[in-house]
Amino acid sequence: MAEAGYDYVIVGGGAAGCVLAARLSEDSAARVLLLEAGGQDRHPLIHMPVGFAKMTTGPHTWGYTTIPQIHANNREIPYAQARVIGGGSSINAEVFTRGNPADYDRWAEEEGCAGWSFKEVQKYFLRSEGNTILSGDWHGTEGGLGVSNIPDPQPMTRAFVQSCQELGIPYNPDFNGETQAGCGVYQTTTRDYKRCSTARGFLKPVLDRPNLTVETGCQVQRIEFVGNRAHGVEYARNGDARRVRAKSEVIVTSGAIGTPKLMMLSGLGPAAHLRDHGIDVVQDLPGVGENLNDHFGIDIVAELNGHYSLDKYNKWHWAALAGIEYLAFKSGPITSNVVEGGAFWFADQAAQVPDLQFHFLAGAGAEAGVPSVPKGSSGITLNSYTVRPKARGTVRLRSANIEDAPLIDPNFLGHPDDLKTSIEGVKISREIFSQPSLQKHIKAIRFPDESVKSDADFEAYARQYGRTSYHPTCTCKMGTDEMAVVDPDCRVRGIDGLRICDSSIMPSLIGSNTNAPTVMIAEKASDLIRGNR
C-alpha cells in the first residue's frame, strides 16, 4: 500500500474543503493534500447558472434518500448530496444569503461557541465575498466567492416581487444587509455569467502552487490513529489502496452526511452503535451523527395562462436559441439560476426575526420530485420553509462497509411548532399567488388545489409534498456540552491532530441558505489552524 506524507490532509473537496486548501497552501512551507471522492467539475451544466435544475440528481450526487419519514407519510425523500469537486457549491441554486446576525449570536451566547458571534465572524464573510455590485460594512469585493446580481430577472420573478409588496411584504434590495426581512431578487454566487463554486473561485486560481495537491476520485476509507492522535487516512483511488500521513492535521470537510459517516467508520462516535457494527471504538463521541437539522421546503405550483416562465425553454428550438444567445452574448435565460426571487417573512408576527424563507422558481417541476403542471403548459413554483426548525434527526451507519449509504433521518416535522410554522408558509405562498401582479398570469394553482382549505388539509399537504431544501447541518456540532463533537476551535474532542471544518459543526441551523455560512466556517477555521485570531 503506497504511503505519502503532507502537513495537512483535507478530506472532502466540497464548499469548505476547497476554501481550506486554498488558504492553507498560502504558506509555501505547508504541504497540503485535498482528497475528493467525486470527479472534476467538467460538466457544462455545472457552470451555467440555469443548470442547477438538472443537478439535484445524477452522477454528481451520492443518490441518497432518507429513511421513511414518520411525520411525512413515511416517504423516503430524495436527499441530494454533491459528489464533485466544489461539493454543494457546484450543484446548488447559487442563492447568496448568509443568515441573520442573531443566528451567530445565538451560537456564541447560548450554544457554547465562543468566538462565533456575528461581530466576530463578519470579517470572514467579508473576506470570502467578491461582490460585483454591493460594498461597504456589509459586503466584501475582493473575495474568492463571486457574487452578482441576476442580469435580467424573469418577468414572473418581477411579478412575484410585486405581488409580495401587494400583500404587505416590503421590498428589500439586500437580504445580507442591516435588515433581512422583506422580498426581492436574490444575489447569486456567479461571476462573469457563470457559477462561482468554491472550486472555481478559490481552488482553481491556485492549482499551480507546488505545495498543493488535489486528487479526485478518492474514497477515504477511514482516518488512522496512533494512540489518540490522527496520523493520516487510508483511501482508494482507481482500485489502488493508499495511505497518506498528516504531519500536522487531518481536516474533515465531507459535509453533514459524509463527515459523521467517516468519523464513525473510523471509530469515533456513539460507542454502542459502533460496536453493533463491529467497529473498534477509538473515542466515544455520542454527538457524532446526532442533531441533524435541515430545512423542510414545501412547494406550491401554479399553471400559467401563457408561456411566461422558463418552462418555455423545454421545447428544443427555444432551448437552442437560448444556448446560442448565451454563447454569443452571455445573456438570456441561461444566466438565470431559476430560483431568482425570494423573501424572509413572519409566520409569527411577534417574532424578533423572520421565521420563514421563500424561494420563487420561474418554472415548474424544475427539481426532481417537485410537482409540475400539465405537459405543454408553463408554470411557476414558490417554496417556503421554517428557517429554524426545532426537530432534530440523525445520521447512522447502515453497516461497516464504506460502500453502503448511511441511514439518514432528518425527522422532518418532528416537532409540532415546525408543522405549525410550515403551514403558515404554505398559506402565505398561496396568498402571494393570489395578488394582482401574479394572479393575472395564473390559470390555476395546481398544488395545492382548491380542495385544500382547512388546517387539516394544509397539514396533510405539507406532510405529502414537503422535501429537503438541501441544507443538512449540525451532525458533528460545535460547543462545550457532552454532545459537542468539536470545540470552538473546530478540534475533535479527545483526539489530537483532527478537526472538522464544514457545515456539520454548526450547533444549530442558521436562518437562510447554507453555502455562504459554510464558506465562512472554512475561512475562520483556516485562521484557527494557522494560529491567527
What features would you describe in this structure?
- With 533 residues, the chain is α/β, with parallel strands linked by helices.
- It is built from 13 helices and 24 strands.
- The protein has helices at 15-24, 44-47, 101-110, 118-128, 155-167, 198-203, 255-265, 271-276, 316-329, 416-433, 436-439, 455-465, 515-530; strands spanning 2-11, 32-35, 64-65, 78-79, 129-131, 145-147, 182-185, 190-191, 194-195, 212-215, 218-226, 229-237, 240-252, 268-269, 283-284, 296-304, 341-345, 356-361, 379-386, 394-396, 407-409, 442-447, 467-468, 498-500.
- Strands 1, 2, 10, 11, 12, 13 and 24 form a seven-stranded mixed β-sheet that branches. Strands 7, 16, 17, 18, 19, 22 and 23 form a seven-stranded antiparallel β-sheet that branches. A two-stranded antiparallel sheet has the order 3-4.
- It starts with a strand and ends with a helix.
- The model has no long low-confidence stretch (mean pLDDT 96).
Query: Approximately how much helix is present in the residues?
Result: 25-40%
Helix/strand-derived category reads alpha/beta
Return the CATH architecture of one domain. 3-Layer(bba) Sandwich
Are there runs of 5+ residues with pLDDT below 50, and where? Answer: none
